[in-house]
């Protein structure tokens, strides 16, 4: 592209220079007629006609020096207008200097040069305006996409101008929507203001745009979520456009155009928790996070650091993930005492060594294998990490006198049909049982699907959309409960503060969301139309998956907590037999589970049932 422009630039300057010189000659002749009428004095007329070549050369020189031979006429604006005025004024001064001392120019009136300069400015400006008008009319006739812009500030004005002026954009702006009803009827670059934010549904129905662009800076932050929600009530693709200044200085990326885009995919209001309670729970305490380099573990670390923990121990087996997390936390939270520790939760000796060195008061156990189809094909490894690894850390925590142990679980642990769900159910049962015989408060937090976590469906959908599709959905009726990574971590931290031991905490996530609806909403976030611009195909359920998930088991008692959006599940028979559960008994069962994992999945389910019977 740059090579083509390099070849065209000299030709463009030559043609533009010749045209503008010709317009300068026309201005000189017109000035003569305006000054003297249809019959100017012969000596003045002869002087002007004979001097036309000089006029053209002088004007061309200043046109080139001021950049008028290099500008593109269809982008005419205030800067170009000032350049035209400067070029014409400098040209007239150059032509008028001989009047001060040389004959016969002394007989030529200075008024003629003034008129000539004014006409020259008018002709050069008019030619550019006509080019802009012609191009805009031509593009309106050919445009394919009709866009509605939400916002009326300076950024919105620049967006309107950019969409209508850029030769590669195939847009017609049908109108704008602003914050004030009184602005209705005004125009921005010929685009009418059609109403205010609360009238968005009516405006969208009346004008049926192909696309909606929400200008981030033009919508107050406390209203942005509601405005985006109103826009997304239609099937029209919605873009949230970042502040142009943020894009220039690198604070905004093209792909992440909407900081609240992930929350919009929840189809509900995000969780709002009491930060004072969270700070009271975490501040001044020593915290250990297993699986610290994962998406959930790393977010736990960030939020714990925000809440002024006295020390933060990062236990992670992947060296690079641990290095990157430590580097990021040291940059963002320099005052937090960090202890990066390489280690595997399956290594009992290493876990005990870490606990002895760091003496944590709270442990958040996020280390796990969680990818359902992958775990289905590698059940033994899942048991080693999700079951035995949990036992190793929980048992070490109890013997080390850790105050709180929080297990990160999943809704797939409810009546499990997958290996991953079965291993997580075993982990839940273990910590539930251990809470009865230990001073450590053992809790579990049961998640739905966590949006944007590693291995979740959202990154996969984004990658498929960027490639033009198709977006793959397992089943048209498949539904899941969804939560964001920050919501998941806030739930973990809240549970650690309100749990007494033995409970399973679950976030009230509203109604489950169809995966198909999630895929369609995400496609619209990219400004595309589901099934038209990006196809959606159904691939069938994979091993270990089911159409619907559940949040609670049949034998669990559901209770409310101090937070209206957080529920608590307790086992129907919490150690009613009073029988203590010793390490030897657990080890025997865990060895049976490990042996079952090497065989078929039904054997693993039988092991879960046996463990559930013992823990009840």
From TrEMBL:
SUPFAM superfamilies attached to this UniProt entry: NAD(P)-binding Rossmann-fold domains (SSF51735), S-adenosyl-L-methionine-dependent methyltransferases (SSF53335)
Taxonomic placement: Bacteria, Candidatus Eiseniibacteriota
Alphabetized PANTHER family for the sequence: POLYSACCHARIDE BIOSYNTHESIS PROTEIN EPSC-RELATED, UDP-N-ACETYLGLUCOSAMINE 4,6-DEHYDRATASE
Polysaccharide biosynthesis protein CapD-like domain boundaries: 287-569
InterPro entries: NAD(P)-bd_dom_sf, Polysac_CapD-like, Polysaccharide_Synthase-Rel, SAM-dependent_MTases_sf
Residues that span the membrane, as ranges: 12-32, 44-62, 82-101, 108-130
Presence of keyword Chaperone: no
Full protein name: Polysaccharide biosynthesis protein
UniProt keyword terms in alphabetical order: Membrane, Transmembrane, Transmembrane helix
Similarity comment: Belongs to the polysaccharide synthase family.
Pfam families the UniProt entry points to: CoA_binding_3, Polysacc_synt_2
Superkingdom of this protein's organism: Bacteria
């Amino acid at each position: 592209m740059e090579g083509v422009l390099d070849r065209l630039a000299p030709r463009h300057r030559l043609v533009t220079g010749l045209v503008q010189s010709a317009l300068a000659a026309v201005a000189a002749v017109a000035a003569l007629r305006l000054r003297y009428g249809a019959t100017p004095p012969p000596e003045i007329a002869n002087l002007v006609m004979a001097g036309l070549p000089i006029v053209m050369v002088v004007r061309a020189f200043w046109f080139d020096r001021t950049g008028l031979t290099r500008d593109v006429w269809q982008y005419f604006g205030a800067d170009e207008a000032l350049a035209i005025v400067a070029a014409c004024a400098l040209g007239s001064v150059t032509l008028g200097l001989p009047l001060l001392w040389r004959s016969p120019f002394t007989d030529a009136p200075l008024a003629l040069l003034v008129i000539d300069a004014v006409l020259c400015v008018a002709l050069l400006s008019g030619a550019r305006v006509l080019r802009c008008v012609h191009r805009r009319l031509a593009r309106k006739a050919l445009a394919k996409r009709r866009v509605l812009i939400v916002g009326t500030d300076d950024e919105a004005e620049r967006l309107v101008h950019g969409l209508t002026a850029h030769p590669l954009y195939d847009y017609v702006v049908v109108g704008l929507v602003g914050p004030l009803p009184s602005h209705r009827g005004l125009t921005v670059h010929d685009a009418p203001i059609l109403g205010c934010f609360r009238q968005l549904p009516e405006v969208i129905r009346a004008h049926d745009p192909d696309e909606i662009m929400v200008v981030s800076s033009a919508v107050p932050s406390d209203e942005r979520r509601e405005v985006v929600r109103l826009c997304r009530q239609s099937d029209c693709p919605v873009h949230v456009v970042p502040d142009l200044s943020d894009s220039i200085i690198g604070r905004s990326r093209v792909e992440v155009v909407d900081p609240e885009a992930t929350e919009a995919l929840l189809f509900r209001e995000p969780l709002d928790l009491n930060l004072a309670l969270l700070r009271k729970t975490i501040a001044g305490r020593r915290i250990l996070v297993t699986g610290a380099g994962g998406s959930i573990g790393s977010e736990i670390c960030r939020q714990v650091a925000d809440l002024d923990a006295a020390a933060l121990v990062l236990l992670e087996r992947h060296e690079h993930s641990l290095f990157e997390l430590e580097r990021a936390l040291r940059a963002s939270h320099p005052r937090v005492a960090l202890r990066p520790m390489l280690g595997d939760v399956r290594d009992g000796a290493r876990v005990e060594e870490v606990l002895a060195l760091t003496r944590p008061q709270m442990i958040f156990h996020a280390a796990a294998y969680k990818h359902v189809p992958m775990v289905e094909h590698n059940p033994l490894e899942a048991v080693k990490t999700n079951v035995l690894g949990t036992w190793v850390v929980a048992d070490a925590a109890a013997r080390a006198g850790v105050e709180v142990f929080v297990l990160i679980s999943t809704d797939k642990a409810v009546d499990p049909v997958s290996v991953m769900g079965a291993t997580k159910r075993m982990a839940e049962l273990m910590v539930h049982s251990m809470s009865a015989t230990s001073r450590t408060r053992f809790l579990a937090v049961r998640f739905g699907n966590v949006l944007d976590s590693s291995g979740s469906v959202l990154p996969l959908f984004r990658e498929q959309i960027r490639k033009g599709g198709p977006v793959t959905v397992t089943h048209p009726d498949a539904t899941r409960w969804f939560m964001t990574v920050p919501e998941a971590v806030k739930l973990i931290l809240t549970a650690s503060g309100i749990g007494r031991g033995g409970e399973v905490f679950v976030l009230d996530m509203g109604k489950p969301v169809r995966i198909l609806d999630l895929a369609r909403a995400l496609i619209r976030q990219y400004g595309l139309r589901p099934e038209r611009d990006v196809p959606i195909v159904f691939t069938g359920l994979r091993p270990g998956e089911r159409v619907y998930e559940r949040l609670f088991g049949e034998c669990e008692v559901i209770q409310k907590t101090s937070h209206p959006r957080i529920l608590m599940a307790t086992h129907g028979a919490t150690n009613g037999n009073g029988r203590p559960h010793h390490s030897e008994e657990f080890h025997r069962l865990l060895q049976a589970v490990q042996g079952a994992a090497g065989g078929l999945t039904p054997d693993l389910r039988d092991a879960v049932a046996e463990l559930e019977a013992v823990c009840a």
